[in-house]
Amino acid sequence: MTEQEKDLLIQLLTKFTSLTPEERANDKSLMKAKADVEKTIGADLMDAKIDDADDGFPTVLTIQQMAQFLQIGVTKAYEMSHWLGFPAVHIGRQVRVPKKALLEWLEQKHQEQSDEVQLQVMGRKRR
Q: Boundaries of each Helix-turn-helix domain copy (predicted)?
């Protein structure tokens, strides 16, 4: 566990538990407290709150933040939010995109394109 991960975990756990200074210094105590909190609030919520990425973006992105994150225009980002299979959550007129789901979606698209290119290359070799 890196120091940054440890600091983030301590910040989160102190909201839900009362850790002594000795427990904060002990990795085993931290992991036990984390497990206790996960049982209470759920592991999914726990994972969503701990975002130690040093990219300056929150775990849930607005369309403007997503556009900035992907380095694309806001119009294109909004259009993407309506694509079938895109991991956008529409809340009334607002759109939010979980960063983790966006990264997974990008990885999936990258893999699909890589597979497609390989098939094209193999098809050319057979001729």
A: 60-109
Q: What is the pLDDT of residue 1?
A: 56
**CB-based burial of residue 3 (10 Å sphere; 0-12 exposed, 13-18 middle, 19+ buried)?**
exposed
Domain residues for the domain of 78 are 60-124
Side chain identity at residue 100, one-letter code: K
* Residues 97 and 69 both lie in one domain: yes
> Is 20 contained in some domain?
yes
In terms of domains, do 74 and 38 share one?
A: no
Q: Return all residues near 105 (Cβ < 8 A) that are at least 6 apart.
A: 85, 86, 87
**pLDDT at position 119, please?**
72
pLDDT in tens, 31-87: 777 676 666 655 554 455 445 566 788 889 999 999 999 999 999 999 999 999 999
Residues 13, 18: Cα–Cα separation, whole Å: 8
Q: Where are the beta strands (DSSP E) in 58-120?
A: 60-61, 89-91, 94-98
Q: Render the burial of 8-40: b for 16+ CB within 10 Å, e for the rest.
A: bbeebbeeeeebeeebbeeeeebeebbeebeee
